[in-house]
């Protein structure tokens, strides 16, 4: 089978590896427009549950990656100066470039050809193929040029965010919310190596406008954010890497393929970073597409692609819906920080997607559950009743 893949991100790389292991005779090549050592962003994060799929489907890769991960057993919600640790929420992280480099080595050892610094703007540039895979990210030209065929919708959300790093190594995945005279600032931060952390700053649109970020230079923006989060950074600098203010595009495709062309990863759909599942979803897409070909065979492309969407849609849609509910919560964060006590706020955060019940909180973190029950005894009565 001749497979040509657009994009050397986790989705494309992992699908290539799985198909090459299925049959080493497959002719698989990946085309990536960026240099091999280029990456934007800092670290990527996995929940402990997110890693379980990898252990179950590919223990060899799990073991290969796991020794490079930073791990911690809890998350922390900071409401101004009050930190609420929440147990029972394990996470792991790794630098994005480190993850990609490990995957590059993994697929090249299997015989997959990687073509870096290769700008592909038409499928014909990759020659004839049995299957074309669009794994070229949220701004995939392949999807954009075929929106009618994929039935694409894009919803640009209102909050602004900017992806930074810092030399401060935080002890857990932490969500820090600080009230300022212009509005609430949220920092999503976590360690991805012993001396580095991701430090993503998010604000509501009105806050962004009031501060005047639109007219600030990159250096002025860094200094402003360092001042807001001075207590958290403890003198450590914020690090920029092609960092700029963005809004999140919620992308969905009703149809995932046409002819012998299929989308996976962020090209297929985007899931908000607040649920920490983007890389997981991308790699699960790869597993599902691989299994579709393994079960349907490699001669009936249409059948395999139909099976891929049918099997992958239900579990993926649940996470995608949860991610969108999480976006709604963040778009109300100014009001929530103002109206709720630290305990109520942490509880609201943990239950924001509707996928975590009070019973789940009691199981994961009895201390948080008891503190919330003291403020809202009716919750305990409902659970026990």
Task: Please provide a written account of the structure.
The protein has 16 helices and 15 strands. Among the domains are: 2-40 and 96-155 and 250-330, FAD/NAD(P)-binding domain, CATH 3.50.50.60; 355-385, no CATH class. It is globular. It starts with a strand and ends with a helix. Strands 3, 4, 5, 8, 9, 10, 11, 12 and 13 form a nine-stranded mixed sheet that branches. Strands 6-2-1-7-15-14 form a six-stranded mixed sheet. Helix 1 (10-22) packs parallel to helix 4 (96-110). Helix content is 43%, strand content 27%. A hairpin with a 2-residue loop joins strand 10 and strand 11 (196-203). The protein has 385 residues and is α/β, with parallel strands linked by helices.
Ordered list of secondary-structure elements with their pairings:
Layout: E1 2-6, H1 10-22, E2 27-31, E3 43-47, H2 48-57, H3 59-66, E4 70-79, E5 82-95, H4 96-110, E6 113-115, E7 131-134, H5 141-144, H6 147-150, E8 152-166, E9 173-180, E10 183-193, E11 196-203, H7 205-211, H8 218-228, H9 230-233, E12 238-239, E13 246-253, E14 257-258, E15 261-263, H10 278-296, H11 301-330, H12 333-339, H13 342-350, H14 358-364, H15 366-375, H16 377-384
Parallel strand pairs: 1-2, 1-7, 2-6, 4-9, 7-15
Antiparallel strand pairs: 3-5, 4-5, 8-11, 8-12, 8-13, 9-10, 10-11, 14-15
Helix pairs in contact: 1-4, 1-10, 2-3, 2-10, 10-11, 13-15, 14-15, 15-16
